[in-house]
Design goal:
Length: 954
């Protein structure tokens, strides 16, 4: 080794990124990765992944690293704003917090005194529903929902009514053992770092990855096989795979009887009140048949060491017939209508490919002989020496969910998993705590108000039957969004996409105040965007607004800010406390329960705005608690009327949902030595901070698989407060709650739908998964509008607030409408032509780009890049406001017939991806800007010159 010459400069080859480092949780997407924020001179110098964090293990993506520019965004709001011009004009005056909160309190106090349901409180991608839902319950309004109704409720409900868990962020493939992974409609914006880490492990092991998606981007680009499916036909493809598995007898019947309801008897008595319900004894216990039809008899379905019938028809003592659930499954899906040759043309997938995929699934599941040598005890006390595996994993996201047939498509995928025995077996889809839950989960939506004005339960929940709906005596909706009505009975996340239309129309009644948080409902989160803006600004004949008051909270000058009467400025994620809670959206993985928190890296008062002025902003959660205390809401004030909680941090620590259960599960109890359940610990937040911002408890090795029926897991989960009992959770191939609705529609029971909904309910509430054409894909629409149109969320962007980020904008500051070269040639188009795209709802003019990574009958674009000029404090000539565009202008919030919301008839999930369009070359003389354009919003000017970071330290 050469010695340094005396005059060589001293070079630090490992310079420190800053003079201080703090650990917290990222908020640049839904991953909730652990980050280390390096500070220098009181400013963010560098953000890196936290290697100790269970979610990302040190990995950080472009979004996470660009959190610096999110924190220093010129679009940050600085003071509360009170509207002084017409709504939508963006004309405000700054006010102090006391004035803002007094005004909000005066509006809300009169509402609560008169009728709490006149407040509609809807929140966006906020990750704090454990607070906001409770606040709505204490206020007493049934009109509360979060973003899930236009995002993922089909995924959640389809899973929770079938498996007691779901895809998305609540389950994961067994990355360690799976040999065959199918990704269905998975974009790159959710849970991306764990998926990327997992895919790397699969590729290293040589496991096969198959991507089912109309567009090949991101994960699909590295998949071993891309299935370019036609949008809305995923369920049909799944049924063809099921057909082949049944035909080949390549299914796991032992698993279906041991863990699912394949052997439960179903009454077959057409036209009668009990038709399609389970056969039960006097205590309500489901029954099965054991023995031959002539000599056997009924036994409790949860009996052990029996060989129940799974096919056949059996005569009950009262003369009725009954058949096992599996008999119904076989009858339906062996039907020739589901054969590969029958569905291939509709799906756009060759029949031979469907047959091959079915064979590959079966081979991976059954021929690998995977078994883990881990002893365990099942819920019935039987001891097992090993854990037999089924190394096939399915993972799905919004691409299958955001269709009007999405609920049943999600259930179809779960049925496919169950037939393979591939739910929480080694190598398969795995639950993440606190899942699985009982099926359906026990919490029903609140319906009535107590004497103190609070709701008797949370505003959202799970309907078990028609008696749980929120309808009046005539069967009309009670909620402003029509959730939990006969039109959308299982709308477990509410229907955020319908609230503005219905509030404008006064359907079913007029509201006084619309309060929204982080929900850009006048732009990229609106279906039928132009009409939505009109509804927000429309007035009655006397000159008053149809929606009298709009309170909005956001950290940034988004398009929705312009439509508020009162704007409450939120902090950035580096200036706030947050709870990533087991009660909401935890960060668990299949081997352990985990939650996390954010804490202020900065006091926002020390972080000047882009104009150099001090910002006066507050975390919305703390503001909400302040409003609750000012209103005197139960649970938010002491007996003397003083606030019960100092701020959100105090609420996180001291609030208990039930005795011992709070927002964070770690370091509970007076001494901090309890986990899951325990009294509040005043030092809890500091313990989280000291541990990198998270808590995690490993599941015992013997309890990590077959969680729905593993005694070790059920006892562990019960101890931590995740489930109410240690009873096994029986997986539901056949969903009896759906049949209860169908029977009501056929005229049975005390609670029946109004006449106009009967056919709809009878059609779509099938207890077995079904497939039907998406509502916008009827023959008329398909002829007039021959192309499907979908959006993808890019890996480098997450919702609108990421697409104003200076670093991420360098990746893409505009979007194109991508179409297959053959499709473009057939329409007489050239690459980069300007085109007019039409739907039954309207027209847009945009620039086309040829791309071979799309199914030829589908066109697509990146979502949320197009901006309204003047919003987000982008430059006046920013590409986002000129050539950038939204497909949302084409997406109607109603079906083509205009009879129902453009949504799934079971859950009310917004059907974003049902869109059908036609394309023609734009007229000569086009302005070379995307259309439509709207008047620029005066929400603040962009700084002169480029946005620089760190230049002063060079």
């Amino acid at each position: 080794m050469r010695e340094s010459a005396p005059n060589d400069p001293a070079i630090d080859t490992s310079p420190s990124p800053g003079d201080e480092v703090k650990t917290t949780t990222c908020y640049m997407c839904a991953c909730r990765c652990g980050i280390k924020v390096w500070l220098a001179d009181g400013k963010v110098r560098y953000i890196q992944g936290n290697p100790a964090h269970p979610v990302n293990q040190g990995v950080l993506c472009a979004k996470g690293a660009s959190g610096i520019m999110q924190h220093y965004s010129p679009a940050r709001l600085a003071k509360p704003l009170l509207r002084v011009g017409e709504r939508g004009s963006g004309e405000f005056r700054e006010v102090e917090w006391d004035e803002a909160l007094q005004l909000a309190t005066s509006w809300l106090a009169s509402v609560r005194a008169r009728n709490p349901d006149e407040l509609a409180f809807f929140t966006g991608r906020d990750q704090s529903q454990a607070l906001t839902g409770w606040w709505a319950q204490q206020f007493g309004t049934i009109n509360y929902a979060a973003h899930g109704g236009f995002c993922s409720v089909n995924m959640a409900a389809g899973g929770l009514y079938t498996l007691g868990g779901s895809f998305w962020e609540f389950g994961e493939p067994d990355w360690e053992h799976t040999q065959y992974l199918m990704l269905w409609g998975v974009a790159e914006d959710h849970d991306s770092n764990p998926i990327k880490l997992g895919l790397g492990r699969l590729k290293a092991r040589g496991a096969k990855v198959v991507a089912v998606n109309p567009v090949r981007s991101g994960y699909g680009a590295i998949a071993d096989e891309w299935i370019g499916i036609r949008p809305g036909t995923d369920g049909l493809f799944a049924f063809a795979l099921i057909h082949e598995l049944l035909r080949m007898d390549r299914i796991d019947l032992d698993y279906l009887v041991r863990y699912a309801n394949a052997h439960w008897l179903v009454v077959r008595d057409p036209g009668a009140a009990g038709d399609g319900l389970f056969v039960r004894d006097a205590a309500g216990q489901a029954l099965c048949w054991v023995g031959s039809a002539g000599e056997g008899g009924l036994q409790p379905a949860d009996s052990i060491d029996i060989s129940p019938a799974v096919v056949g028809e059996y005569r009950l003592h009262d003369g009725r017939s009954a058949v096992p659930v599996f008999q119904l499954v076989a009858e339906r899906y062996l039907d020739p209508q589901y054969a590969p040759d029958a569905v291939c043309e509709r799906c756009g997938i060759p029949a031979d490919t469907i047959r091959r995929i079915a064979r590959e699934l079966a081979a991976a599941a059954f021929d690998s002989k995977l078994s883990l040598p881990i002893a365990w005890t099942d819920a019935w006390g039987r001891e097992h020496t090993d854990m037999p595996g089924r190394p096939v994993s399915l993972h799905a996201m919004r691409g299958i969910s955001a269709h009007s047939n999405g609920f049943h498509t999600c259930r179809a995928l779960h049925l496919l998993q169950l037939l393979l025995g591939a739910v929480d077996a080694p190598g398969s889809f795995r639950y993440q705590p606190p899942y699985p839950k009982p099926i359906p989960p026990p919490n029903r939506p609140g319906k009535t108000r107590r004497a103190d004005g609070t709701l008797d339960a949370g505003p959202l929940g799970f309907v078990h039957g028609p008696e749980d709906l929120l309808v009046d005596a005539e069967g009309r909706p009670r909620r402003i969004d029509h959730a939990f009505s006969w039109a959308y009975p299982l709308s477990a996340h509410g229907m955020m996409h319908t609230v503005i239309r219905n509030a404008h129309a006064g359907d079913p009644y007029r509201i006084d105040t619309l309060m929204m948080f982080m929900a850009n409902m006048s732009w990229n989160s609106a279906m039928n965007t132009g009409e939505t803006m009109r509804w927000l600004t429309d007035k009655d004949a006397d000159g008053t607004y149809r929606i009298p008051h709009i309170i909005y909270s956001d950290a940034y000058a988004s398009e929705m800010v312009a439509y508020a009467d009162l704007v409450l400025p939120d902090t950035t994620y580096l200036e706030r406390f947050d709870a990533i809670s087991m009660l909401d959206r935890p960060i668990s993985d299949a081997d352990g329960a985990a939650d996390a928190m954010r804490h202020p890296v900065f006091d926002p008062a020390t972080q000047d705005g882009s104009d150099g002025r001090a910002r006066d902003v507050r975390g919305f959660q703390s503001v909400l608690l302040d409003l609750g205390a000012r209103l005197g809401l139960p649970g938010m004030v002491h007996a003397d009327g003083s606030p019960a909680y100092r701020d959100y941090a105090d609420y996180i620590v001291r609030h208990e949902r039930t005795p011992g259960v709070g927002l964070l599960a770690g370091w509970r109890g007076e001494d901090g030595d309890l986990h899951g359940k325990g009294a509040p610990n005043p030092e809890q937040l500091q313990r989280y901070i000291d541990n990198g911002g998270f808590w995690r408890e490993e599941i015992p090795e013997h309890a990590r698989y077959f969680k729905m029926a593993n005694r070790g897991y059920l006892e562990w989960a019960h101890r931590l407060g995740f489930i109410g009992s240690t009873a096994p959770i029986v997986l539901q191939l056949y969903a009896e709650p759906l049949q209860k609705f169908r029977l009501a529609a056929l005229g049975h029971g005390e609670h029946q739908p109004p006449e106009e909904h009967r056919e709809r309910v009878a059609t779509y509430f099938d207890p077995l998964p079904m497939w039907y054409e998406p509502f916008e894909h009827d023959q008329t629409s398909r002829k007039t509008y021959p192309l499907n149109a979908v959006t993808q969320r890019p890996m480098f962007m997450y919702h609108a607030w990421g697409s104003q980020n200076a670093w991420l904008r360098q990746i893409a500051a505009r979007n194109w409408l991508y179409l297959h070269p053959d499709t473009g040639a057939g329409l007489g188009l050239a690459d980069e032509d300007w085109i007019t795209v039409a739907s039954h709802n309207g027209e847009i003019t945009v620039q086309a780009k040829f791309a071979g990574n799309v199914q030829p009958d589908t066109v697509w674009t990146w979502n949320a890049i197009g901006k309204r000029r003047g919003a987000w404090r982008l430059a006046k000539d920013a590409p986002e406001g000129d050539t950038g565009f939204l497909l949302n202008h084409l997406i109607s919030d109603r079906t083509p017939r205009g009879d129902y919301a453009n949504a799934d008839p079971v859950t009310g999930q917004a059907a974003w991806f049902d869109l059908r369009v036609s394309i023609r070359k734009a007229d000569a003389g086009h302005s070379q800007s995307a259309q439509p354009q709207f008047a620029p919003l005066p929400l603040g000017d962009a700084p002169d010159g480029p946005l620089r970071y760190g230049a002063r330290r060079r």
